Amino acid sequence: MTQRLAEILISSFTKILIPGIRVTIPLTILSFAFSLVLALLLALFQVADVPVLKQFSQIYIWIFRGTPLLVQLFIIFFGLPSLGIMLEAFPSAVIAFGMNLAAYNAEVIRAAILAVPKGQTEAAYLVGLSYPQLMARVVIPQAFPIAFPSLFNNLISLVKDTSLASSITVVELFTTAQQIAARTFEPFALYCEAAVIYLIFCTVLTWIQAAVEKKLVWEHKESTGRKKPILG
Q1: Largest distance between two CA atoms of the chain
Q2: Quick one: pLDDT at residue 229?
Q3: Confidence (pLDDT) at 222
Q4: What are the residues whose beta carbons fall under 8 Å from the beta carbon of 119, sequence distance 6 or more?
């Protein structure tokens, strides 16, 4: 029995890992990139203080933070076809994960933007920068190091959340583990193996996060030591 289980785990490891590399990682990267673009827009809508845009952003965040991600996945993949909108499973997952995570990332980015000293924006207007120039050259570069840890934590959480894509037929890491478990009747061992692979992915990302945060801190100390002006 033990030998059979060991053989199953050894043979299944690469079978589970390969979909993780080919599907889970691309799904995570594309969803996160989409969420960042959308989150930045939502955050800018809120800080721009334009009533209609601000209300739209707040309603969007309220809806996507207040409803389950699994329900959002089902609405996009199973619900939209009733309205004549047909999407494949993978793009449906990218859209659902991206739109959901954007609501959380938007709040992170908004808080980071508001953390930039108001004196910086006032100085930028004094030297003649427009609002888009202010955001691109002054505010966002300073807000990024503040937002980075929370954004990266959301990325790590997204890696684990991609397992929900199995519910809409995306053949990713967890789906493959389910299929093998159904054939071998060893669900406990195979789900544990899938969990280990998720843990490996998340651990690598944690190492990357620590390295980038260290670099950001070092660059901040360097710029502070040189007393480099923000608007220079």
Answers
A1: 76
A2: 42
A3: 63
A4: none
Question: CATH top-level class for 2-226?
Answer: mainly alpha
* Confidence (pLDDT) at 228: 44
Q: What is the pLDDT of residue 207?
A: 97
Contacts of 71-79 with CB under 8 Å at 24 or more apart are: 72/96, 72/99, 72/100, 73/164, 73/165, 73/167, 73/168, 74/167, 74/168, 77/168, 78/168
Percentage of the chain modeled with pLDDT above 90: 77
Q: What residue spans define the domains of the chain?
A: 2-226
pLDDT-based confidence at residue 202 (cuts at 50, 70, 90)? very high
3-state secondary structure of 185: coil
| Residue-level pLDDT at 231 | 39
**Which two structure tokens, joined as six digits, stand for 108?**
């992170």
Each residue of 100-116: b (16+ CB within 10 Å) or e? Answer: bbbbbbbbbbbebbeeb
Residue 11, both tokens: 């043979």
Q: Which two tokens stand for residue 121?
A: 């924006």
What distances in angstroms separate CA 123 from CA 24, 130, 223, 230, one per listed residue? Answer: 45, 12, 19, 10
